[in-house]
Amino acid sequence: MEYKAPLGVKIEENGVIPGAKKLVRRLSDLKGYFQDEEAYEKLLRENPVVYEVYAVEQEEKDGDLNFATTVLYPGKVGKEFFFTKGHFHSKADRAEIYYAIKGRGGMLLQTPEGKAEWVPMEPGTVVYVPPYWAHRTVNTGDEPFIFLAIYPADAGHDYGSIKEKGFAKLVVEENGEVKVVDNPKWKE
Ligand SMILES: O=P(O)(O)OC[C@H]1O[C@H](O)[C@H](O)[C@@H](O)[C@@H]1O
Ligand SMILES: [Fe+2]
C-alpha cells in the first residue's frame, strides 16, 4: 500500500494557500451572469478581478477530499453584489462545507426544482451545503470576503443550468441595505 503524505498548510492573511493552484475569475469570465447588462458592459472596460480561488485538489476519487480558499472581492454590477459563478456538483449527491474567514457575505443555495435559500456568513460561520443543492457565494461587504471550502475529491463542478437560468433570488443593495429579492428573469 502506498500512502499519501499528510499536509499542513497555513492560510495567509490575504486568503492565499501557499503552493495551491490559483484560478482567477475576471468580470469577462462572468458574461451573462449579472442582471444589469448595461452596468456589466460599462464595468467591463476595467474588467476587474471578481474572485480568486486557491485549490489543493486530489485525484477525482471517492473518499478523498479537496479544499480551497476563495477571495471574493467587493463590488457590484448595478445593484447586484459580486458573486461566484455557482454550481451544482457533477456528482450531484456530494455535499460540501464552507468556513468564513474574513469579510462579510453569504451563500445562495438552490435545489434542482428552484427552491432558493440565503445563508448569511461572517468570520466563523460554517455552512453545510447538503447533497443536490447548487451554491453561490456573494460578497455583501466592502472588503474581500475570504472563506475555505472542503469538498469530496470526486464532486466536480456542473455550471450548466446556473449559467443558463441563474438563481431564483438576487442579492442586491437597495437604499444602502443588503436585500435578497426575487429574480425577475427567473424561469423554472
Ligand atoms: O466554481 P465557482 O462556482 O465559480 O466557485 C468558486 C469556488 O468556490 C469554492 O472555493 C469552491 O470550493 C470551489 O470548488 C469553487 O470553484
Ligand atoms: Fe461546490
TrEMBL record:
A Gene Ontology biological process term: glycolytic process
Pathways per UniProt: Carbohydrate degradation; glycolysis; D-glyceraldehyde 3-phosphate and glycerone phosphate from D-glucose: step 2/4
Localization terms from the record: Cytoplasm
GO cellular component, one term: cytoplasm
Chain segments annotated as transmembrane: none
InterPro entries: G6P_isomerase_archaea/bacteria, G6P_isomerase_prok, GPI/OXD, RmlC-like_jellyroll, RmlC_Cupin_sf
Assembly description: Homodimer.
Protein name: Glucose-6-phosphate isomerase
